[in-house]
Amino acid sequence: MPMTREDLEVRYNLFNQFALQDQKKYYKRAMSEHRKAAAQVNRLRAFLSLLTGISAAIAGYVVQTRFLGKESCTAIRNIPADCGTWEAVVIVLTVMAIVLPTVGALFSTLSDLFQWDKMISIYKSATENLEIADAQSPSPAMPDDVYFRASLRAFVEGTLNVMSDETAQWGQSIRTPAQIENFINEEVEKANRRMTGTTGSLKG
Amino acid sequence: MTDQPLPPALPTPPATSPTIEEMLADNAPVTQEGKAFRKNWPSWLKQMPRLNFPPLSEDFELIERKQLIGVLKEIKADQAAVKRVVDDLKYLDSELMRLFRERDYEAKSQQNRYRLYQILYMVLAALATLIGALIALFLEIRPSLVPLLALGETFVALITTYLATISGREPPLPLWLENRRRAETLRREYFRYLANVEPYDEVDGYEREMLVSRRAAEINRGFFPGEQANEGK
Q1: Rounded Cα–Cα distance for residues B152 and B139 (Å)
Q2: Closest CA relative to residue A18, chosen from B178, B193, B14
Q3: Is a pLDDT exceeding 50 seen at residue A8?
Q4: In chain A, positions 142-171, which contact chain B (CB-CB < 8 Å)?
Q5: Which of A26, B66, B90, B160 has a C-alpha 20 to 30 A away from that of A116?
């Protein structure tokens, strides 16, 4: 038995509210969160690069002014009293210039893992396509039940197709960052080599 | 549509519940994730994996009852039509939602596991790079520290091998993607049945119910009705 016009209108409203509008909300929220996350991580990376540059520049300046020349910390006679402090400063700055880019690289890999920009592009396209599906929504003012039914069907199928396409695109975009895969392979090889080496020396 | 009272199947919302406008203005989509989860954290930290993953929420619904009542009141729905929708929702709850909840939960759990491993690898990779750089630095100024750093480097390699071995059994990435695909297909099937579009518009009564039960079970085992390429065929 086909559904009545009242049935179809109730079902249209529920589908519109809980499938289409909910999906739009999801895309909107996900895009907003991903944009913020990508921007925050980018700022962190930029800040770490800046700190690395500053550390390296100050270290270079200290070395030039305190460790080069006749009355510097490397001189044979008349070594200044504060050389120990300056040496410590140079070591700290050098360590910073090593540690900070490493942390920066960690954030780069994090971006590759979450693929925020790619996700934003997928959700943006899906949101635009949902608007196309939404444009086919039936109107309660439609006098013809057959036309209302056909319009509802086009609206529902259009929305479900967008959701299906988005899931497929999302699934294809999820990849383990190549740098992590390379790292695992190298470390496993390294561990095997060391274990083989140790076992070999014990045997020998 | 007539302005009739709702059938007894729908409970009356408490007096303190938000208005329909407030409910509909809520920008949070329906999800098993709590709305207050890491609320004030930076966005990138919000997405980090959890160390203790919460248990499955047995009462999660794709259509929250309070919101449903709000929408039905708003549109002044016909009582007989509401009764049929409520019957459909009850049937979906018993036949499809339990499968959806399990698949959705499993997908989230495997996603968490996958990201946790990846982040651990990233930290280990950073540590390996750092130790390598420090060895190069201390080789000149503090050679006595080099054996200690080399020991650290060996530990990093061993921990990485250990993680690669334990994550190699039931790798989380394919399980995450497979469960997510099934959960999303079940979600679409739920709305397909509710909106009564193909193939549910061609059958009625118990046949319609049996059809959704069969299709949900097929999706749950990785067979997607209407798709050419099906996994696990």
Answers
A1: 15
A2: B193
A3: yes
A4: 152-153, 156-157, 160, 163-164, 167, 171
A5: B160
Q: Using CB atoms within 10 A of its CB, is residue A35 exposed (0-12), middle (13-18) or buried (19+)? A: middle
Q: What is the pLDDT of residue B213?
A: 93
Instruction: Reply yes or no on whether the pLDDT at B21 is more than 60.
Output: no
Nearest-neighbour CA in chain A from B74: distance (Å): 10
* Whether ipTM exceeds 0.85: no
The chain A residue lying nearest B178, using CA atoms, is A171
A57-111 tens-digit pLDDT = 999 998 888 888 766 777 666 677 778 888 889 889 988 998 999 999 999 988 9
**Contact list, B158 vs chain A (CB under 8 Å):** 191
CA pair distance B121, A93, nearest whole angstrom = 27
- Contact (CB<8Å) A99/B125: no
**Helix, strand, coil shares, percent, chain A, to 5:** 80, 0, 20
Handedness of CA A79, A84, A90, A95 (dihedral sign): positive
B26-to-A21, B19, B22, B195 alpha-carbon distances in Å: 11, 11, 6, 23
Instruction: Round to whole Å and give the CA distance between B30 and A126.
Output: 18
Is this model's pTM higher than 0.90 or not?
A: no
What average pLDDT does the segment A3-22 reach? 89
SS3 B34: coil
Q: Among B118, B122, B222, B104, which Cα is nearest to B171's?
A: B118
On whether any CB of chain B is under 8 Å from the CB of A5, the answer is no
Q: Given this model, what pLDDT does residue A199 score?
A: 52
Domain range summary for chain A, segments of one domain joined by +: 5-173
B185 or B140, which is more confident?
B185
User: Hey, are the CB atoms on A187 and B68 less than 8 Å from each other?
Assistant: no
Contact A113 B194 (CB under 8 A): no
